[in-house]
Amino acid sequence: MSKEHSHLPPREIQRLTRRYQALAKRLAQVGSLSQGSVMHAPPGAWRWTRKVKAKTVTVALSAAQAERMKTAISHQRDLDTVIDEMREITQQLILGETPGIPPRQPGSKRPKPCLS
């Protein structure tokens, strides 16, 4: 296999690989995780709301529980951002450093699928 259809220069591959490794290290440092949102619900109460099987579920929380839940939700959002970036880097590396198929020539016809 030749690299004739790759388009990322070695320096860019190295940069993306280093960034991916740094993001992977961040994954090991993730704290508690939760989804949803926390809102104040007077008097002195808090509500944690999230989706479960396409239904909204709400739970009453104490102030201490609300603070911990907010932290866990923040960690979850950070994790989602890291994973999204890792996914994007992976796709760039696969498409940019791995040989692909040659581009179609203008006017060329696609082969018809076999109907057997």
Report on the architecture of this protein.
With about 120 residues, the chain is of the alpha+beta class. It has one domain. The protein contains 2 helices and 3 strands, in the order H-E-E-E-H. A 3-stranded antiparallel β-sheet has the order 1-2-3, covered by helices on one side. Helix 1 runs antiparallel to helix 2. The mean pLDDT is about 90.
Give the biggest sheet. 3 strands, antiparallel
- With helices defined by DSSP (H or I, 4 residues minimum), what is the helix count? 2
**Tally of discrete structural domains:** 1
* Series of secondary-structure elements, N-terminal to C-terminal: HEEEH
Which band does the percent of strand residues land in?
15-25%
Task: Name the overall outline.
Answer: elongated
Query: What structural class do the secondary elements suggest?
Result: alpha+beta
Oligomer: single chain
Give me the side-by-side strand order of the main sheet.
1-2-3
Our measurement of the CA-to-CA distance between the termini, rounded to an integer number of angstroms, reads: 31 Å
Low-confidence stretches: none
Fraction in helix: 40-55%
Average predicted local confidence, pLDDT: 90
Describe this protein with a few key phrases.
alpha+beta, 116 residues, elongated, 17% strand, single chain
Give the secondary structure arrangement, pairings included.
Blueprint: H1 10-28, E1 37-41, E2 45-52, E3 55-61, H2 63-97
Antiparallel strand pairs: 1-2, 2-3
Helix pairs in contact: 1-2
How would you summarize this macromolecular structure in one to three sentences?
With about 120 residues, this protein is α+β, with helices and mostly antiparallel strands.
